[in-house]
Amino acid sequence: MRRSSTVAEAIREVVSGERAWTDLNSLGISVNVNGTAVSIFGDAPRISVRAEELARGWLRNAGDERRLRAWARFVHGAVALLELDVDRHPLGDQLLDSLWRVSFGEQITEEMDRVARRVLIETR
Which is it for the CA torsion 3, 6, 12, 14, positive or negative? Predict the structure, then answer.
């Protein structure tokens, strides 16, 4: 697993599932994720992330339901850090809907995983 050299790269790695959002604490960004909100303190850039990065993160976390839900809550609630740029991908809205549903406790379905895989396939 590659380690970033900047805070922006680290945030992108969290989104794509290459590292845990808790790693941001060691970079001076205090993150608290709970069932209803995400609180972020510290100096961090706001970055734009694409549907492909979200799909990678989804699939890397999909093997552990608790981890996937925590990741989804982080991504959905980290509006101070992330601009979700999914409009350019034809499945972006479906992926965003899955992310939203999982972050609010709905059951994870095979269709949600399938959408994430299709986002990556249809990107290439």
Answer: positive
